Amino acid sequence: MIIKILFFVLIFCIGIVSIRTMLGPTIWDRLITFNLISIKVILLIMCFSILYEAPEYLDIALTYALLAFISTILISRFLEWRDRL
Fold it and tell me: Where are the transmembrane segments (predicted)?
């Protein structure tokens, strides 16, 4: 029961952060909110794995976490160096 409540709370948080992504005044704010959305999606995948007792979804969550981390690093490096190109 608590997992289902947590599932809906995370979806609500993703909605709020998505609004903040659209309203972010700088690209750095949007990058941070992208990272927050990625974290919330990882938590959703983990809750889904616990709710349906499917441990194979934890591998998907780990892969998504690695991809989100690498993409955040690459985008921040690009934004840092784009004025110099």
Answer: 6-23, 32-52, 58-79
